[in-house]
Amino acid sequence: MKKVSSVEAYIKNHSHFGDALNVLRAIINSTELKETLKWSAPVYELDGKNVIGLGAFKHHFGIWFFNGVFLKDEKQLLVNAQEKTKALRQMRFTSLEDIDKDAVLAYVKEAIENQKLGKEIKPERKSKKVEVTKALKDKLDGNPVLFDAFKLLTPGKQREYCDYIESAKRDATKDSRLEKITPMIIKGVGLHDKYKNC
């Protein structure tokens, strides 16, 4: 799908659902939500927070509620697009006739109220604690300069080095990898830094 620069262009690109998308857009725009374009799709926000998105695909179109898990869904109109999705819920349609304008507006208003109440699922952050493997720990303990340099690395870079050593199956491979990374650690560079700057 080509990148678009306006909601109108997005709807034009999905002209097979154009009338229906305009109906949903009008319902959402009748509220206090601010219309924006993110990820080349219409997104509606409140105080800078994403509340609702509008989307069209080959066989269906709909509204996604970024924190739809908190909606009561008394009419059973919402689906969870993916099993791993915690907060996002979709209201899907296949034709203009499927749209119950009053129900859509009620769900949109409830989503706005939930946002005002601060109901949202925060993404889980991975633990910052780095588990240093035995082989690397032994090397660090025997070399104070290397130990100090390792501690100055970001947790992400520390994890890269730990994973690199741990993924070696044989002790000989671990030893050769430790020799390879020692000067890199002392220089303060990450294992994959040379690829990140390409």
Automatic annotation (TrEMBL):
SUPFAM superfamilies tied to this protein: YdhG-like
InterPro entries assigned: YdeI_bac, YdhG-like
Domain YdhG-like per the UniProt entry, residue ranges: 20-112
Superkingdom per UniProt: Bacteria
Protein name: YdeI family protein
Organism field: Geojedonia litorea
Taxonomy of the source species: Bacteria, Pseudomonadati, Bacteroidota, Flavobacteriia, Flavobacteriales
